[in-house]
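hey so i finally got around to running the thing on that chain from the lab meeting. sorry it took forever, my laptop kept dying and i had to restart like 3 times. anyway pasting the input first so we r on the same page abt which one it is
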Amino acid sequence: MAKIKTIGILTSGGDAPGMNAAIRAVTRAGIYNGFDIKAIYRGYDGLITNDIRPFTTENVSGIIGQGGTILKTARSKEFATEEGRKKAHDNLAAAGIDALVVIGGNGSLTGAMKFAQEFDICCIGLPGTIDNDLYGTDNTIGYDTTMNTIVECVDRIRDTAQSHERIFFVEVMGRDAGFLAQNSAIASGAEAAIIPEDSTDVDQLARFMERGIRKSKRSCIVIVSESPKCGAMYYADRVRKEFPDYDVRVSILGHLQRGGRPSARDRILASRTGVGAIEAIMQGQRNIMVGVRNNEVAYVPLSEAIRSDKPFDRKLIKVLDELSI
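ok and heres what got predicted. didnt touch it at all, straight out
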């Protein structure tokens, strides 16, 4: 196996607070350990268009507290094709890049896995997604900041809900994973959370209305995971039809959740996993994601990291049920 000399970094998919801290960590840890670092702008699209530039420690000075990503990001349709990945590999080889660090979520790491399989290149993933849906790490980069943002917004919405005695349905991100909705509901004192993991035959709205609305509690907050079919608007419309006595409002937080300065937890997670990525490369590991489990850096095969069954602690549902009476 040829010795790795040059490491490329890219951010892909949706941006997440803490991505810049991860870029900084990979760059500085790489340089510290004798590697050349090259930055790839605009995700996998940047590989295809050859938007690749050398990086020094000065390039990442002062970025640890910035939201978003200085490398920009994109969702690349062309990279999803064999022709696109071939073009990306040719540019990677021409730039002398021997290993690739990909900071992103499920789709980004799936792309890295395919790329590694087709061209036998070392790919290391860092879990950069606000959804916290990657298996093999307790938290993902951006999750903590986003949850804090949601809680701050809900605290403000509650003032209006109480003043007008309204039911507010607050829609948050996490289409396929309810970690954000469930935990932000607990943290903000919301009365209920409607999440994909609890989508059994039981009607979540009916169950909530039966137990959670009393004459002494006409204002309440319900956190809803986004869904094209059953989002906050869907549930608000149902309440208007089925329980016309209640005043209902909807607040969709949308991309407000993605931005902002990363929390200390996200900066630390990004820094630890970034250093861990360089250590993995030095150890000869390939095609893994670097996470943190039980406060220890953990290496997980990409094929495991992207599987869709990250355990959801159903005890959290019971906690919210008991505290929202």
